[in-house]
Amino acid sequence: MIRRSCVLLSCLLMAACAAPPPVQHIVSTPAPPQMTAAPALPPAAPLPAAQAPSSPPADVAMREMLAFHDQVRQLSPLEVGKELARLGDPQANPQATVQTALLLGLTRSNGDVGRALALLDPLLRSTSPEAAPWQPFGRLLATRYAEQRRVEEQLERQNQQTRDNQRKLDQLNEKLEALKAIEHSITARPAGSTPPSTAGAKGTPP
Questions:
Q1: DSSP H or E segment with residue 180
Q2: Which of 200, 175, 195 is nearest to 185 (CA)?
Q3: What is the C-alpha to C-alpha distance for residues 28 and 89, in angstroms, rounded to an integer?
Q4: Measured on CA atoms in the order 200, 202, 205, 206, is the torsion positive or negative?
Q5: Taking the CB of residue 142, how many other CB atoms lie within 10 A of it?
Q6: Prediction pTM value
Q7: What is the pLDDT of residue 199?
Q8: Exposed / middle / buried, residue 145 (Cβ in 10 Å: 0-12, 13-18, 19+)
């Protein structure tokens, strides 16, 4: 009994003296960083609609006058007169001035081209902002009418010269016919005959 107790005690002492097992250090693995959601961006503001660049006033006026010319260029002189009456005072505004000048070039009446030029002259000399957009088309009309009037005056001079030449030719023909009539009357008399006045003068005693 005592021996068994000694053996048990010896075993316990040996177990107590034995080296303790190495302590295992557990290294904690850091947790992966959590992905935080990015804050939502505010909705983008809609882009403004692209606006077409506004045309210069002179271009707008030019297009309006070209459209007006297309409307009236086939009108008869009577219809042109009605359109002139509808426009009224040509000095009311620059547009009315240019439209009236355009219509005057379509009347086919003598002197209307000169009237149109006289109407355009103050507009082309004006420095007002209201007149500026209409001056380019007015200048085109004035150039055209000036050339047209020059050609008409040249034709008139040629026609006048032709009439003068024809009148001179008619006068020469009349003189030639008169000379032919005199020659015919002389050749138609019988040979040896004398005019009665000559015979009476010879029969009168001195």
A1: helix 135-187
A2: 195
A3: 102
A4: positive
A5: 19
A6: 0.56
A7: 47
A8: buried
